[in-house]
Specification:
Largest sheet: none
Length: 163
């Protein structure tokens, strides 16, 4: 067993475990009338982790879809406000990088070369570019300018309400 195979298995077990916890909590939240996001994301993580532990590169693609869904949900929930967005996307992005790093191990497997050449290698640069783009977007936001803009909008809204 190579280091790459062990790495894929460890990441698969990690994603699977996180999916079980997130999914169970998500189902409970659904029962309480809360967001369905956690149950759906947990199911996606379970599927991704199961595929990775079986050494199937499709697990990388499934995780990428869950990550994209997470970004959409996070922006829908809090908008582009940096500080509320950070806790919703940082951990999934770190896990995305760990999952993307399994791709070279898949490519090193002799039976996977043809499939990886057509499908798997496209995930890695896409995932890393998306993570880098998100990081730079978060860094580009100036908290003072955002606060000033909120104060201006609040002043306009107050003047409209009074008038």
């Amino acid at each position: 067993m190579s280091f790459g195979s062990i790495y894929i298995t460890v990441i698969g077990v990690l994603v699977l475990g996180l999916g079980l916890v997130l999914g169970a909590g998500g189902v409970w939240l659904m029962v309480l009338g809360g967001s369905w996001y956690y149950a759906i994301a947990g199911l996606g993580l379970v599927l991704s982790g199961a595929l990775l532990t079986r050494r199937n590169v499709v697990g990388v693609g499934v995780y990428l879809l869950v990550w994209i869904g997470t970004l959409i949900w996070a922006v829908w929930e809090v908008g582009f406000e940096m500080w509320p967005l950070v806790p919703r996307v940082v951990a999934p992005t770190i896990i995305l990088v760990l999952v993307a790093l399994t791709i070279p191990a898949f490519a090193a497997r002799p039976g996977s070369r043809k499939y990886i050449a057509r499908h798997g290698r496209a995930y890695q640069p896409l995932a890393l570019l998306a993570a880098a783009g998100l990081a730079f977007t978060a860094l580009a936001q100036d908290p003072a300018a955002a606060q000033s803009q909120r104060l201006e909008v609040g002043a306009v809204a107050a003047s409209l309400h009074e008038g």
